[in-house]
Amino acid sequence: MNLSFDRMISILFLLIGVAFIAGSLKIPETAYGSNVGPDVFPTALGVILILLSFRLFFETCNHSSEKIQKVKIEYKRFLIIFVSAILYVLLLEKLGYVITTFLFLVIGFQVMEKGGWLKTILIAGGFSLGIYFVFVKILEGSLPEFPTIFY
DUF1468 domain spans which residues (predicted)? Predict the structure, then answer.
């Protein structure tokens, strides 16, 4: 664990969170009078990022150097998740939100902790379908739909 790196990253995340909020203030509000406009989600993400960066900064300031241990960097896991994130972005429009998110989460969960396929499938499927339902059906937003072969 590198405390100075963690402190610098927390400051970077703080600046990114502020940029999210500043950028979301420039997004026009919805014209339909809905309470949830397109600016709500980026603003919430910015606030969460700022809060988490404060937590990281204060944890590294209060952390004693005696408890620091060497962390093994796992390049294989990183590359698998990185490549799957790139494939997620490239296939999102073609396969739709639910399928690509489900596949990305299954890969991510299995890379982090092998086994437990039933739990992985249930959580990934529930998250993908749940977010799609809430965002598209309740909030009336738009996400890439299922491919036309499923209609």
Answer: 9-144
112-148 confidence digits (pLDDT tens): 888 889 999 999 999 999 988 887 777 777 777 777 6
Any residues with CB less than 8 A from the CB of 50 and at least 6 apart, and which?
13, 14, 17, 18, 21
Cα 52 from Cα 15, distance rounded (Å): 12
> Of 80, 140, 131, which Cα lies nearest the Cα of 88?
80
pLDDT in tens, 77-117: 889 999 999 999 998 888 888 999 999 999 999 998 888 89
Query: What tokens does 15 get?
Result: 């600046």
User: Is the pTM above the cut of 0.70?
Assistant: no
The helix-helix angle for 97-112 and 75-95 (nearest 10°) equals 170
